[in-house]
Design a protein that fits this description.
Blueprint (H helix, E strand, L loop, with lengths): L1 H12 L12 H14 L3 H15 L13 H17 L17 H14 L6
């Protein structure tokens, strides 16, 4: 009877898990895995810790700084893009969206501009 009880407790504790794959720069992967080894954790544990902190803090749990991102460059890119859009024929205004998603087109444009500055593309 105690074996059945233990099995039931284990089932309650277990959560559904999913697999998520990402592409990594091979050199960064080697360096990061070496750090994880020094810390005595597996890469999977490190990723789960990161996700847990994102959930708890509702933010990226560290400062994001990149010297490659130049604010002036970003502003110039935005102005250039706006000028290009202004020179093209302007279509009829789009209907007002009732979408409450946290990222609007302007946010997505900003991410695209940042990726262009960093020389990255989403290959997923």
């Amino acid at each position: 009877m105690s074996t059945q009880l233990s099995a039931l407790k284990l089932i309650k504790i277990m959560r559904k898990t999913e697999v998520y794959q990402i592409r990594l720069d091979s050199q960064e992967k080697k360096q990061a895995f070496a750090v994880f080894k020094q810390l005595g954790i597996t890469p999977a544990q490190a990723v789960r810790l990161f996700f847990k902190q994102v959930v708890l803090t509702k933010s990226i749990p560290f400062s994001i700084e990149n010297q490659n991102i130049n604010l002036e460059q970003l502003i110039k890119l935005r102005k250039l893009k706006q000028e290009q859009q202004n020179t093209q024929a302007t279509p009829a205004p789009a209907p007002v969206s009732t979408d409450t998603s946290p990222l609007d087109d302007e946010d997505l444009d900003l991410f695209a501009e940042l990726n262009a500055l960093l020389g990255e593309t989403d290959k997923s």
